[in-house]
Design a protein that fits this description.
Blueprint: H1 2-22, H2 31-43, E1 51-52, H3 59-73, E2 77-83, E3 87-88, E4 94-105, E5 111-122, E6 134-136, E7 150-157, E8 164-165, E9 171-184, H4 193-203, H5 208-220, E10 226-233, H6 241-246, E11 250-259, H7 267-270, E12 273-275, H8 278-283, E13 293-295, H9 298-302, H10 304-308, E14 312-319, E15 327-332, E16 340-342, H11 346-359, E17 365-371, E18 377-382, H12 391-394, H13 404-412, E19 421-424, E20 427-429, E21 433-435, E22 446-449, H14 450-455, H15 459-463, H16 471-480, H17 506-512, H18 523-535, E23 544-545, H19 547-551, H20 561-576, H21 581-584, E24 590-599, E25 605-613, E26 616-622, H22 628-641
Parallel strand pairs: 1-6, 8-16
Antiparallel strand pairs: 2-4, 3-4, 4-5, 5-6, 7-14, 8-9, 9-10, 9-11, 12-13, 14-15, 16-23, 17-18, 17-26, 19-22, 20-21, 24-25, 25-26
Length: about 650
């Protein structure tokens, strides 16, 4: 009996061993396989992964071809999102589906996100060796509904650059028709490339340096290159368009560019646009790409991001040799730029520029007009002698006797009145000798009313009050008129002057009364002084209208209306009987004025005139002149009587 039991046991064990040795291997776990395939999709290393295909396509090569354009634009992420349960068939095969999540972050805030499904099959065991899972390959593994032969492409959709507008919403800078002029090397024999560049430079009236640069760039460019020389307005009369078009090898390409009404209109303020430099591209953190037109200077550069808007992105699929329109898979709409609003009055700015052009000053010059009610800068023109520099808003010069408006306020606050008697000698010594200007009227010397000394701009009378009015008093009086404050509401680069409050020598303190020593101002600052007097309260100038400038706090100046009224009275005397009488005689609407001259750089005499007409404060400045009355005066007259 024991032998029978033992035999049965041996037989069962043998059968079990035979089953174990001959059984079909189990189906491998599917989750690790799905994870590994996701990793392969992320790297593109698909060569060693088991796949099934319906064609002879090589998955790794198709992967590279489909994604080539996208991978030049951004990196991407792909991850396993989920898998379905494994379905086993009676014949030992099995299948499951894996879903992969893709994300292409084209910007910080926008990404093209989608999922694709991949079918995995298990063909069964190979004898006693376990089989391997295989992924069913098709183009749709890479992008939704992608077809064989299609390639993905990413396009940048450019937004429209916004306008710069002036007072009343009048357009200043907008897209205008232009011609890009240059040498097309493919249109002329190689032996004529340099000669063509020189001919073009001559037609464009280039100087020697610009000519040599164009020739050098032409020689260095490729055999079929277009070498840009200049961008001109279609309507620009300064260029012989017919001659340009008839010159062999010269090409004119039509297009548009954000431009002001004329080439010179407020150019130092508005700035220019052009193709982005390498430095701009690097500093933009991806916002700007090669070939983009951006602001290069002035407000165009300062507000470039607002004006430029946000590019859109479009992902398409198309067959490489197909004629069909690309199929859009995803898009982010471009956001057009937002306009920049300025307070500039277009007609007044043009008039100011024309007045300066007619004056023909060789040295830097400027006209600035500020609205006393709003603080809006209505005009800020810099003359041709400024050579493109924004003298109107950034110039730093001693204001000379125009500063006597602030000195007078300091004296009024220390007890003087227009009728107070002051001494106006020919000379006075306070740390050094001070004189009156050449030609100062003899009948205004001696003990005279303060209004007379102010009207005729008596230096010695003002310096004589150095003990009555401290340097801090002068600083505070100037600040009450907007001089020396931060240009916090301007919205652009601007300088409102500087008046030291202390740590100053006796001679410099005395010189401060007549706007010299360490006192500095810009034409913008002195127009602000005149506007403050006109409006009866401290003006903080505004050029760019923003929420901050519209809602910003008024300056902390302490100018009172009764003080401003007295200053207007004193400035009125300058026009009625004083140093501005001849220049502004007969000009209607003038409330008052003040002339000035100062020792400037390189021995030049900086000349000034400020005036009030209605509720507008105006400053005229010329870096190298004779007197405020004779050099700046006629310019002021032309500005106030025209436009």
């Amino acid at each position: 009996m024991l032998g029978i039991v033992a035999a049965v046991a041996v037989a069962v064990a043998g059968a079990a061993l035979a089953w174990f040795l001959l059984r079909e291997p189990p189906i491998p776990a599917h989750e690790p396989v799905a994870e590994d395939f996701g990793t392969a999709l992320g790297t593109g290393e698909l060569a060693d992964f088991p796949v099934t295909t319906e064609t002879s396509v090589v998955p790794e090569k198709q992967y590279d071809a489909v994604f080539a354009d996208l991978l030049e634009s951004t990196e991407f992420e792909v991850s396993l999102a989920e898998t379905t349960p494994v379905v086993e068939a009676d014949d030992g095969t099995a299948s499951f589906t894996a879903t992969y999540a893709w994300a292409w972050p084209f910007t910080e805030d926008e990404a093209w996100e989608y999922t694709t499904d991949v079918e995995f099959t298990y063909p069964g065991a190979d004898g006693r060796e376990p089989g391997v899972w295989q992924a069913a390959w098709s183009p749709a593994v890479l992008a939704p509904e992608l077809e064989s032969g299609e390639r993905l492409a990413v396009e940048r959709v450019d937004p429209r650059r916004a306008d710069i507008v002036g007072a009343g919403g009048k357009t200043i800078v907008t897209e205008r028709d232009v011609l890009t002029v240059g040498v097309d090397k493919s249109r002329v024999d190689a032996s004529r490339w340099s000669a063509t560049a020189r001919t073009l430079a001559e037609l464009l009236d280039f100087g020697d340096e610009a000519t040599d640069d164009l020739v050098a760039r032409t020689e260095a460019a490729g055999e079929r290159a277009f070498v840009q020389a200049i961008v001109i307005r279609v309507s620009d009369p300064d260029y012989d368009r017919q001659a340009l078009e008839e010159t062999p090898g010269v090409l004119l390409i039509p297009g548009t560019r954000a431009l002001a009404p004329t080439a010179d209109f407020a150019r130092p303020i508005l700035g220019t646009t052009g193709e982005a430099t390498a430095e701009i591209i690097e500093e933009s953190d991806g916002r700007v790409e090669a070939g983009d037109v951006v602001g290069l200077s002035g407000l165009q550069a300062a507000y470039d991001e607002q004006l430029a808007g946000t590019p859109g992105i479009r992902v398409t699929a198309a067959k490489e040799d197909g004629d069909d329109e690309p199929r859009e898979l995803w898009a982010k709409e471009a956001k057009d730029g937002e306009p920049v609003e300025l307070t500039l009055d277009v007609a007044m700015q043009q008039h100011a520029e024309q007045v300066l052009a007619d004056a023909g000053e060789d040295s830097p010059s400027a006209i600035v007009a500020v609205d006393a009610t709003t603080g809006g800068v209505l005009a800020a023109a810099s003359g041709e002698g400024s050579q493109g520099y924004n003298t109107a808003m950034l110039g730093q010069y001693p204001p000379g006797s125009t500063f006597k408006i602030a000195s007078a306020l300091g004296m009024l606050r220390n007890g003087l009145t227009p009728d107070s008697t002051v001494s106006c000698p020919e000379q006075i010594v306070v740390g050094k000798e001070f004189d009156n200007v050449d030609g100062y009227p003899a009948d205004a010397l001696g003990d005279v009313p303060f209004r007379t000394a102010f009207a005729h701009s008596c230096n010695t009378a003002m310096v004589g009050q150095h003990e009555l009015v401290s340097q801090q008093d002068l600083h505070d009086a100037a600040a009450s008129l907007g001089l020396g404050l931060e240009a916090s509401r301007l919205g652009a680069a601007g300088y409102l002057g500087e008046v030291p409050a202390d740590d100053i020598s006796e001679a410099d303190h005395a010189a401060s009364f007549i706007g010299q020593a360490r006192v500095l101002a810009s034409p913008l600052a002195m127009a602000t002084v005149a506007a403050s007097v006109a409006g009866g309260s401290t003006v903080s100038p505004v050029l760019v209208v923003t929420d901050e400038t519209e809602d910003g706090e008024a300056p902390s100046g302490t100018l009172e209306e009764d003080e401003a009224a007295t200053l207007r009275e004193l400035m009125g005397g300058v026009v009625e009987e004083g140093s501005a009488q001849e220049a502004l005689a007969g000009v209607t609407g003038v409330v008052g004025a003040k002339t000035g001259s100062a020792e400037g750089n390189d021995g030049r005499t900086n000349v000034w005139m400020v005036a009030i007409k209605g509720d507008i404060g105006v400053a005229v400045f010329v870096e190298d002149g004779d007197f405020g009355s004779t050099t700046a005066g006629p310019i002021m007259r032309d500005f106030l009587t025209g436009g």
